[in-house]
Amino acid sequence: MAGQNGLKLSQEGTTVGVLGGGAWGTALAFHCVRKGHDTMLWAREKEVVEGINGPDQENSMFLKGYKAPDGLRASSDMVEVVKHAELLLMVIPTPFVAATIKGIRDQLRPNQILVSCTKGILIDTLETPQHILSRVLPSETTKNLAYLSGPSFAAEVAAGQPTVVTIASANDQAAGRAQMLLSNSRFRCYRTNDVEGVEMGGALKNVLAIACGISDGLGFGNNARAALITRGLVEITRLAVASGAHPMTMGGLAGMGDLVLTCTGDASRNRTVGLRIGKGEKLEDIIKSTNTVAEGVLTSSAAAKLAKKLNVDCPIIDGIFRVIHEKAEPLGVVSEVMSRDLKMEVDDELMQAAKH
Fold first, then answer.
1. 138: left (phi over 0), alpha (psi -120 to 50) or beta
2. What is the DSSP string of 131-180?
3. Cβ distance 207 to 200 under 8 Å?
């Protein structure tokens, strides 16, 4: 695991570029300005750029009701934002990471720190952002890659409410630098070297949030939600450990922390999708009615495929896949999962992994 040396909070300012003008990218840009950094935000959508730069200083498309702090600049020129930044935050949906980064990789500098704030797994290749970036970036750029995850609703970060996340990197110096530049009294960053664990936790919790939403939509109570979170965490841990992660990471911010938030919070897009499915709405109609991305819909396919590839038992994840993509009846899936053969609560494999 990562080194234990403590770092003091820093007032140092730098140049920051945020790639992605959705709710999360916008909230991170707000935070960076409040931290004292010279910050630019790249957005694909003309409405976002004009809204941030206009008199209302608002991203009404994705983060309505939150005024940007003075000093934030938005641009539709990605190269301009990349050249501006020492610290570059990538907040691009997973399916578009490769194409986006390929377009700017010649502009990246070896001394830049690139922090992926994206959560997801590609369906076709089963790659998380770290594997995508390692594939498309030159080796001299990948040494300063880091990955941010944890329980963090965009609206609360935009409002300056206390939030705690973790930053993972194989390079502890890069993780420490990002940690220092992003942390303040309202946004605390821990760090770890378990990139695999942080990314798997951040991606897979979205599938479990859909499960909890379906449970709530069916009218089940707190017992069912607690069971889904707890046993869902076991499934996430199984997959993460089989992928090379440390099981303790799943008990931290990127695992249990993000899972609890996403499965219980009313602002969770993934839980909302599940809630509407549980109440009888069709997924196609739900998707058409929103302009935001519920990552768990796509990740459920990748997670089920990954579990099969690694031969890992994940009945809840498999059940959600069948409800979303094979139109299985939620009540029938609940009965199947609850009626499986009885077994020990903790797997021998996880017990052994926890000892190392």
1. beta
2. HHHHHHS-HHHHTTEEEEESS--HHHHHTT--EEEEEE-S-HHHHHHHHH
3. no
Residues 304-334 as b or e (16 or more Cβ within 10 Å = b): bebbeeeebebebbbbbbbbbeeebebeebb
Per-residue tokens: 102: 């390929």
Q: What does the alpha-carbon distance between residue 45 and residue 43 come to, in Å, rounded to a whole number?
A: 5
Is the distance from CB of 295 to CB of 271 less than 8 angstroms? no
Start-to-end CA distance of the chain, whole Å, equals 11
Q: Which two tokens stand for residue 260?
A: 């609890």
- Per residue in 2-48, pLDDT (tens digit) is 444 677 888 889 999 999 999 999 999 999 999 999 999 999 999 99
Contact between 149 and 256 (Cβ < 8 Å): no
For 283, counting Cβ atoms within 10 Å of its Cβ (0-12 exposed, 13-18 middle, 19+ buried), the class is middle
Q: Which residues of 192-228 are buried (b: 16+ CB within 10 A; e: fewer)?
A: bbbbbbbbbbbbbbbbbbbbbbbbbbbebeeebbebb
For the entire predicted model, the pTM comes to 0.94
Where in the sequence numbering do the catalytic residues fall?
Answer: 205
What SS3 class is residue 116?
strand
CA distance 120 to 98: 13
Distance of CA 169 to the CA centre of its chain: 15
